[in-house]
Amino acid sequence: MPLSFKNLPYWLFICTFCLLACVKIEAQNRAVVLVFDDSGSMNGAPFLSVDYSMQMIIGLLHPDDELFYIKGINSFQPQAIKITDKQAAINDIQKWTNNKGHGFFGMFEAGMTKLRAAELADKEKWLIVTADGEWKDAIPAKSNVIDAFLKKTKTNIAFLSINDIHDGKNTLYPILDQFDFVDLYKSNPTPDELRKELVKIATTISAYPTKGFDVKKNGNKINFNSELPIQEILVLEQAGKSLDKLSKIKSVTINDNSIQLNDPIELSTFPVMKAWNDPFSNSGRMSGRMTTISDGSKVIPSGASLVLEFDKEVNLDYIELLPKVAAKLIVTVDEGAVPSKSITENVYNVCDNLEKGIINVQLVALDGAPLPSSILKKVNVNTKYDGGEQRLRLEDDTYIGEIPLVENFTSVSVSAEYEGYLNLRSDIVSFNKVPCPKLEGKNVRIEDAISVLDLEKTLEYSALPIIMRDGVDVTDEVYEELELEEISNTGLNFSIAKKDGNFIFTNDGLVSGFLCPSCFAGTGKDSIVYTMNAPSQTFEKKSTLTLVIEKTDAPFWEKCGSCIIKFILLLIGLIYLWGIAKKPRFAWGALIGYKRITEYVPSKERNYELKTNFFNRYLVPFVPERKTVQGISFQAGEDDSYITLPKKSQKKEMYIQNNIIQKPGIQDRQIISRGKLEIRRRNRTDEYIYKKG
Question: What pTM was computed for the model?
Fold first, then answer.
């Protein structure tokens, strides 16, 4: 049907059932109060819209839910509607007429009062308001009533201002706009704008998916599948003129297995009036059909293929599929920070010194088991609280948030969104700061004197805290929560542990060093000071725990004697190692070739290895390695390019490279590689040749 002002009632009905359908998806075991504006300005199309919405909500609710409505004509008394027989209740609603009631805020306040009743304490609550903008109540003076209601109940409020064209007379809207947990929607009387606002409602306050599941049309069939398990699917069919236009569901299969169909619920209004200025004013009526698809008590598993077959080709413009995901939000607070709780109003009392309230949120299946981590990682879980918003962090299977408690009363709501699948919102949880008993601790002081000779020893001290409340020792009660915070330190480093009601301070030595650290350690007092505190308790006085260590001096030789001896021994060792490293040694494989030459008998050359024994070569420092060959001593040079003929081995008859040694015994002489030393006598010559390895 094309959009135009003339067919506004049709689109109003379509969008209104989207608003009310979200209630079905959000909650079970609910208490719902609908403020039904039946004032004179609602006459005509607005009244018929609300009338049709009443029928729709009856079809959406569970038989165990409780439904009340408030109209101006009945003196603001909430009237219960039995929904165990939904079709009978709907048939009754279809007969309603506009009685032109009055006193809109009186109806609004009566709805709040009903939802605060003790008998509804354990139910999830909704206050749904549909009205135009023409109110003559003194509403601004009632804002304190609304504020108290929001802060001390867990009710969700959705308010839609219908056909708001009364300039300056819409007095409730700006009042509600100042509160954090009221969802406000305001539309001009054009189908496009109205539908856009109602879609926002459906995706904001319920589990109705923001973009819808994977739905495909195939002739007279609709194929449907989901990444998440589904409890049930609500099929809403809407026609503009008569029941004949509605297609009928013939069968439903889940993974090719047929399931039994529930009887549909038929919705309609009495014939529309000429005041609507509608083409169907004389012959048509608004009509709809609601069918719940479920597999009995079974959950439709994730990934299942669903096929809905109709008796004729379907038009998706007239059909909405609202899947109810088999999941729920569980919101808890940190019990360690919340000593008391008001069950009736969902308010948690906390000590007035608490700066943050801990919120723990789990997204679980209907059996309480957490959803798979692959799904949890895709879900955005956010909190909205007085003065701010915060995205929760996921740790294991729990979303955790730390809510700043700036005001004395802080309300929090939690939403979980997985685009296309989930848009859950929790009840409102409130933190109420109350005065807590003041604690007073006894200051604790530990003192010890340590000689500089004992500074490397492990130190351990035990401190027994004493915490009082009104003069009575409550240490045992507070001990597990008691914490120490370091506020000053002049050079100590102790680890702290709790054991048997005591704080245990341990240090593995005040100083440490390779040589004697006591010789260089200073003397005097060092201290470390802690404050004692318990996060959820209030300390009237900041109690301290102080540890003081005094380092005392000792005679010089006692604290430094061993250090001096160690130093001397270390120096000797270093000199020895230096001598070993610097000692000249013969090259590996170095030889002295020797032969004796006579006038008559030549001799064969013999080679003598220069390397000496291990002790002489590697353990004697500084002294160059020496070897005696045929009565002549040779000494290693600084490198293997030469060896040395010591001056004590030199004689007058000696020649090096055919050069006679002038003034032998004065200085050492070098013999290079392949160099020759000769000792020439009258009847023979002894020849020595240095051969590098």
Answer: 0.55
Q: Which residues contact 196 (CB under 8 A, 6 or more apart)?
A: 187
Residue 483 CB contacts under 8 Å (≥ 6 apart), including other chains:
532, 533, 534, 535
Which whole number is the average pLDDT over 519-536?
Answer: 86
Strands (E), 87-229: 124-131, 156-161, 182-186, 214-218, 221-225
Q: How many Å apart are CA 668 and CA 665, to the nearest integer?
A: 8
Q: Using one digit for the tens of pLDDT, what is the confidence trace for 162-180?
A: 665 444 556 667 777 777 7
CA–CA separation, 372 and 36 (whole Å): 42
Question: Long-range contacts: 621-628, Cβ < 8 Å, 24+?
Answer: 621/575, 621/576, 621/578, 621/579, 621/580, 621/582, 621/583, 622/579, 622/582, 622/583, 623/583, 624/583, 624/584, 624/585, 625/583, 625/584, 625/585, 625/586, 627/586, 627/592
Asked if residue 56 has pLDDT above 80, the reply is: no
67 closest CA partner among 48, 51, 76, 54? 54
Q: How far apart are CA 629 and CA 373, in angstroms?
A: 87
Question: What DSSP character marks residue 123?
Answer: S
SS3 call for 89: helix
pLDDT per residue as tens digits for the range 616-663? 889 999 999 999 999 899 999 988 899 999 989 988 889 999 999 988
Cα separation of 185 and 139, whole Å? 18
Q: What is the pLDDT of residues 598-620, one digit of tens each?
A: 877 767 889 999 999 999 889 99
Q: Parallel, antiparallel, or unpaired for β 380-385 and 327-333?
A: unpaired
Q: What is the DSSP string of 19-69?
A: HHHHHHHH-SSEEEEEEE--BGGGTTHHHHHHHHHHHHHHHHS-TTSEEEE
The CA distance from 643 to 587, in Å, is 10
Q: Residue 561 pLDDT more than 60?
A: yes
Lowest mean pLDDT segment, chosen from 7-16, 46-55, 64-73? 7-16
Neighbours of 264 (CB within 10 A): 18
> What 3-state DSSP class applies to 6?
coil
- Residue 647 sits at φ, ψ, to 5 deg, of -65, -30
